[in-house]
């Protein structure tokens, strides 16, 4: 199987996006290269027809938009999330005991804990340092980009029932090993000292941090015919990358195209930078007012707009096919998935499904359907949350993957170009 060019681009983007902050920085760099102008949420905007803009929100969310020559009467938006299940490092994280240095962590999102054991792990995120005034601290992004930590399994000789199912205690069993020590203490010294050395600043200047422990192993192509991609963070950097690429390649004379990347989906989205906030409707309202359009225009175009919520979907598992619905069976390499749920955990209605199906048919884009088994509780994503605050026709889509929320996930190599084509067509048709 020929490896699509999109594979290298996706794996490069994932490697750059070791935290939500880095995902936004990587997306912003690509928008800069395509001639987009960065706006500040706290400054006055001066927008014009034909302009391309983006703004970052608290470093971990981003909204980008293109104002086409005839902006009224057609909003098209695509949304994804920048966060992923991981370990987050607590304040005063250093633990030194029995000759070992460990880090105190907490679980972020619905991780499959045992997939993180025995792997080389690294650290990335945001550091806050003292600035000229308390309200203007220095903000730095940090990515060590090398293996630094590991979480060792307990040998089978010490847990003979480990293969019968092993329950892991996050506070006890998931603490990463960082090194060796000569004394037992609970202290912030060794971790803060390491951060200060990396930042080349006195330890007392570091006020706070938001740091993610992430798998240090790179993504790769695998399979007898190179038909799969194995990588960390496929959920949901596949969609983040697709939204940004599709927006930069969109071309239509009418309406406004928007790509929105939200944080905190894995923990519920109800944050100032999450899809459960008023961020998206406020940005769109601000665009309309800046262009001189009325509130009536804004409400009318929200009602007539369309939102694609892009997040990964569950592929049919080769060893557990009974976990899927018996008649809706998404497979790897068969195209993006339209996700349906009667309880609206996935957003959508018959018209939305029909529109996207017809787009796919007209442009030779393969697509599949996903519905949860009727006796199983499924997941949820951005669509219903976002459209509740912004009543716009919405549909949840995404590429199918295996091992969702594992330290490494699996996707089909042909599904990334297919979802990119779908979103680009959606923006351009």
TrEMBL record:
Cofactor: Zn(2+)
GO MF assignments: aminopeptidase activity
InterPro entries: Peptidase_M18 (IPR001948), Peptidase_M18_dom2 (IPR023358)
Highest taxon in the source lineage: Bacteria
Cited CDD domains: M18_DAP
UniProt keyword DNA repair present: no
Enzyme Commission designation: 3.4.11.-
UniProt KW keywords: Aminopeptidase, Hydrolase, Metal-binding, Metalloprotease, Protease, Zinc
Keyword Zinc: yes
PANTHER family, alphabetized: ASPARTYL AMINOPEPTIDASE
UniProt record similarity statement: Belongs to the peptidase M18 family.
NCBIfam families (UniProt xref): PRK02813.1
Protein name: M18 family aminopeptidase
